[in-house]
Every structure is written in structure tokens, then in C-alpha cells.
Amino acid sequence: MIDFIHVSKSFPNGDVVLDDIDFSISPGEFVIITGKSGAGKTTIGRLLIHDLVPDKGKIVVEGMDLGKIKSQNIPVLRRKIGFAFQDFRVIPDKTVGENIVVALEIAGYDSKKIPEKVKHTLNMVGLSGKEKLFPGQLSGGELQRASIARAIAAEPPILFADEPTGNLDKETSLEIFKLLQKINSDGTTVIIATHDVTLISLNIGSHIHLEKGKIVKIEKRSEEKSEEKEDKEEKKEANK
Ligand SMILES: Nc1ncnc2c1ncn2[C@@H]1O[C@H](COP(=O)(O)OP(=O)(O)OP(=O)(O)O)[C@@H](O)[C@H]1O
Ligand SMILES: [Mg+2]
């Protein structure tokens, strides 16, 4: 469960980026946060991992009140949130596989289980066979998958994917979106920050829209309405 309660954030010499923002995200929810460039989408993600602190308001993540979090608990918080960064932040001189190993090591994963877990994660994101390539040798879509792989390898309950389809063609964007839906259908709460109109027009998941520091729209879509569930329902109907 994630709660933003009357959260405001501004930067020195800047306008108010988030102005009295209120929203909740339930476990297992699929949420799309939209708003034009500079609307504060990444800022929400950074607040979530306590990389930034709000000027006002309260943020609660998985029962942890971030206003009261002790420094030794910040790694605990960050293990709960896989963050696929807008600028990827994969380590350029490590291979795709090694990047995932690093993520698992940071998460304190049992070293004996790491090779199998790397394999499983690459398979999950559709990068089997690319383990030994360096990030610079990947296509844009593959690089995005590598970034997502690193974020989800240690199975955090929450994934924040920041502009996961930026600079990708429509078809590749939809493939990445499907991957995020698959991750969500396995139980992970998925939050996507995007201004990709293709994704928004799909009308899948809950939708939070930011404008001038405010949430101007919150549309909650229950899990039942997700494409996966609809597909399952259709199959059930067909089998009757
Ligand atoms: N460290 C900082 N210092 C000053 N201003 C900042 C800082 N970080 C972000 N901002 C400002 O906060 C605003 C919101 O930034 P943010 O990165 O959250 O936007 P965004 O919605 O993610 O945009 P984009 O779609 O371009 O990624 C921007 O106007 C940005 O210039
Ligand atoms: Mg951003």
C-alpha cells in the first residue's frame, strides 16, 4: 500500500512541483501516472524511494511512514521498490547479466541462487541469450528490458517504471507495456510514469494525471478490468 497524503514539493528557485497531492495505490494495482514534461512524475518516484523528501505532507509505503524512517531502514524501503530509471542507469562496463548480479547482490540475495535467478529474470523480460552483451550493444527496447530486469530481479513488491517507452517505436512500446502487465499479473504493484499517448489511449489500469502541480484526474480501475482478467473471463465464457 502506498499513500501520499497532502504532499507538496518544490525545489529551490523553482515553482511548486507537487501541490497538495493525495493518492493511494493498493497492493497489486497497475497505475499510470501522466502529465506533460516537468509535471512531477519522476519527482513522485524519487519521493517514493526517499531520494527526495516532501516539504509538507505524509508518504507511507508498505507501512513505513517515510517522514519517520530511520536511516538504517532506507535500504529496507528501497528493496521494496524496483526503480527502472528514465535514463536506465545500467552499469555500462558490466554485461546485462552482471548488471542483474549487482542488483541481486545489493538486495542481499543468496549468492548460490544468483545464477539461476539471473537466468529466470532475463527469460522473464525476453532477454535470454543477451546475458553477455554490454548495455551499449543493446537496442533501445532491449536496454529498457535490461533496466526493468534489474529493477525486478530481487522481486520487489513494487515496480516504478519511469518513462519506460521513451524513444521507442509504437510496436516496441506496446511490447514493453505488455511486459509490465505480465509483471503486474504476477502480483507486483506496477507504477508507470509516462507521457506516451499510445499507452494512455489503451485505458488500462488506474490513471493519475498531473497538471500544474495538482492531480486533475484520478481514475481507479479495479484489477478485474485489466486486460489479463478480461482475457481470462473471455476464455471462461468460451469454455462454457
Ligand atoms: N533537483 C532539482 N532542482 C530543481 N528543480 C528540479 C529538480 N528536480 C526536478 N526539478 C524540477 O521539477 C519539475 C518536475 O520534474 P520531474 O522530473 O518530476 O518531471 P517529469 O514529470 O518527470 O518530466 P519528464 O516527463 O520530462 O520526465 C521540473 O520543472 C524540474 O525542472
Ligand atoms: Mg521524468
UniProtKB/TrEMBL annotation:
Record InterPro entries: AAA+_ATPase, ABC_transporter-like_ATP-bd, ABC_transporter-like_CS, ABC_transpr_LolD-like, P-loop_NTPase
Keyword annotations: ATP-binding, Cell cycle, Cell division, Nucleotide-binding
GO CC annotations on file: plasma membrane
Ranges where the record places region Disordered: 219-240
Pfam families: ABC_tran
Gene Ontology annotations of biological process type: cell division
MF GO annotations: ATP binding; ATP hydrolysis activity; transmembrane transporter activity
UniProt domain ABC transporter: residue ranges: 2-238
UniProt record similarity statement: Belongs to the ABC transporter superfamily.
Name this polypeptide is given: Cell division ATP-binding protein FtsE
